[in-house]
Amino acid sequence: MLSYGGINKDNSKTNSFDTSDFGDNSNNNSQKDYNIKANDSSVEGENKVENIGVAVFKEDKLVGELNALETMALLSIRNKIDRFLVSVPDPLNNEEYLDIYITPNGSTSVDVDTSTSSAYVKIKCDFTAQIYSMSKNSKYLSNEVLDIISNSCNRYLESMFLDYLYKTSKDFKSDINGFGNFAAKNFITTNEYNNYNWLESYKDAFFDVQVTTSVKSGMLISET
To answer: Is 181 a domain residue?
Structure first.
């Protein structure tokens, strides 16, 4: 069972989870902003809705809370997000981050292997992305550099998803992603599924995440 966000003061104008509402677009602040949870933020968007974080329940008991970045992972897996903003390490400058808008290309692919007592969950995500902001002196004008940034996005997002997934299995011991619906397809009868004891075995699950990101030019800085 999930509880989204904090207090809804008005109806939201968008279904997207836009982390630009967290504050300014400074690269120095963007990473710490992803660690905030519901009711921790003093920032309020113009739509008067706080949409940061998720409370996680298991059998009506509160077992934890997701921060902003983990919430993006959850919504991506459940195909309930239109786009989101992340700050990815700049592959050409280790001291800087690139703010990049990520848009899913279709639904996330989920496959669950239950041939052993430890389920193996494989996830594939395909995204299109645009550079939203960068440091003043950056020059990202070539396809070669954009490919490097795409690979950086892939590594960053794969790590984000894996950290989140193992948190749900090891810390929460709760399948808040609904993977059990995919696992059930592997069993002929309800009794076989019940005997596998999915909710109990989920804590021992393994995960594999493959992300493909195509970063487009977006808002580029032109050479003068």
So the answer is: yes
Residue pair 21/6 in contact by the 8 Å Cβ criterion: no
pLDDT by position in tens, the chain (length 224): 443 333 222 333 333 333 333 333 334 444 544 454 444 443 333 444 344 568 787 777 777 899 989 999 999 999 999 999 999 988 888 888 889 999 999 999 999 999 999 999 999 999 999 988 766 555 656 888 889 999 999 999 999 999 999 999 999 999 999 999 999 999 999 999 999 999 899 999 999 999 999 998 755 444 44
Compute the distance between CA of residue 38 and CA of residue 55 in angstroms, rounded to an integer.
8
Q: Residue 66 contacts by C-beta under 8 Å, 6 or more apart in sequence?
A: 37, 53, 54, 56, 74, 164
Domain holding 165, by residue range, is 2-216
- Please state, in angstroms and rounded to a whole number, the distance separating the CA atoms of residues 61 and 173: 12
Dist. CA 78–CA 73, nearest whole Å: 9
Q: Write the CATH number for 106.
A: 3.30.300.210
Q: Which residues, in sequence order, are CB contacts of 46 under 8 Å at separation 6+?
A: none
53 SS3 class = coil
Which class for 42: exposed (0-12), middle (13-18), buried (19 or more C-beta within 10 A)?
Answer: exposed
Total number of residues shown for the chain:
224
**Tokens, residue 39:** 């009711």
Domain count, the chain: 1
